[in-house]
Amino acid sequence: MSNNIPSLGTVFVSYAREDRERVRTLVDHLSSQFSIWWDADIEPGTWFRQAIDEQLDEAACVIVVWTKHSVGKQFVSDEANRGLSRGVLVPVVLDKDVKIPVGFGEIQFIDLSDWQQTESAEMAKLVKRVQSLVERGPSPRFQYAPLETDVWMVENSLQATAELRELTARIRSLGEILVPGSAPAADLLGALKEVGNTYRAVNTAITSFITPAVEQGPVDAKPFVEMERGSLLTTIKNGRGHCSRLLAYYGRYGGLRDWLKTKASAEMLANVDEVFSRLGTADGDLFAQLVQIGDLLTSESRAITNLLLAGQEAAARKRILAGRKKLEPLEQQLSTAMNELQQVAESLGYAEPV
Fold first, then answer.
1. Contact (Cβ atoms closer than 8 angstroms) between residue 157 and residue 202
2. For a 10 Å CB count at each end of the chain, is N or C smaller?
3. 81 and 32 Cβ atoms separated by less than 8 Å
4. ∠ CA(256), CA(262), CA(266), 5° rounding?
5. Which stretch of 203-207, 210-214, 279-283, 325-329 has the lowest confidence by average pLDDT?
6. Between residues 142 and 273, which one has the greater pLDDT?
């Protein structure tokens, strides 16, 4: 570190080498209040890129210094993008009329082009934004990619929902032979509720994440602070279904399967056995893939909180709405799946939500 000031989090400074002396002046000024890290702190013999990556990943705040030199440096844009993905980027402009690279325009920058190495309104603004992030401490060791650019978790959840829908569709025909309101019908309903509970828990978490941005007025940081602390995971964990219960409904003595052995054809029984055998492993894959959405939204909530606490409400709202668009196919899939289960429940003589 460039100083020994105690701090909950480190401030990483990204810049172009051509601007080192100008940036040194800024670093010296901020070092009286924060623990600053920039590449001048790298010890001789240290693997340069590894040292930078480690500090960048753990930094509570990333200051990118935009100048006529740095806007053309790919590594500066890459470092800034990594800070932006976590919502901890604080841009500073040292040259007037500099053209900020595409992708960073929605983040409000601090204009220090006229800074005279003294306290000023812009410097006070910079200190305030940095302080709001530093007080939150270092970033978690592992974070997911931004929701908007996620390439597999949402898709995995879509595929898991599609497979669950296909499995439950294969046992809808049981409604034709089960007596509505009977004990076997109640067993089937109970089993389907375990699937429906998982759908509903994930859908509720998604709605909780999106709602603060679509309501009227400023985006409140408090819900996202709660979400990053695990409220979404708690919602899913407490609300989701479980395979052990699902199998208990199907296989209990004198239950649904025993009834089917006397009433259903061998072909139908084999089909239902196969479906429940697959559903019996859902905790480890299909349900798990849906539950991971909670991890993704928790990580995303931390980035949103960072943006809001740093006064970047427009960027935070834009990020939430971009996430909403990304999640729309999954929301629609979950809604359709829940409606299908409700139709089965009604055919079994039950009107309450599945």
1. yes
2. N
3. no
4. 95
5. 210-214
6. 273
The CATH number of the structural domain formed by 10-134 is: 3.40.50.10140
Q: Are 125 and 85 in contact (CB under 8 A)?
A: no
CA-based diameter of the chain, in Å?
Answer: 89
Give pLDDT, residue 44.
47
Rounded Cα distance between 27 and 77, Å, is 19
For the stretch 63-96, what's the b/e string if a residue is b when 16 or more beta carbons lie within 10 angstroms of its beta carbon? bbbbbebbbebeebbebbbbbbbbbbbbbbbbbe
Q: Which residues of 36-47 are buried (b: 16+ CB within 10 A; e: fewer)?
A: bbbeeeeeeeee
> For residue 48, what pLDDT is reported?
62
Which distant-in-sequence residues (6+ apart) come within 8 Å of 224 by Cβ? Answer: 212, 301, 302, 304, 305, 308
The tokens describing 161, both together, are: 């929902």
Nearest to 211 by CA among 296, 290, 321: 321
Amino acid at 345: A
How far apart CA 228 and CA 232 sit, in angstroms, is 8
Question: pTM for this one?
Answer: 0.86
Cβ atoms of 30 and 157 within 8 Å: the answer is no
| Phi and psi at residue 220, to the nearest 5° | -85, 130
Residue 184, phi then psi, degrees to nearest 5: -60, -35
The residues spanned by each domain of the chain are 10-134, 147-347
User: What is the spatial distance between Cα 8 and Cα 348, in angstroms, rounded to a whole number?
Assistant: 58
Closest CA to 307 of 61, 59, 52: 61
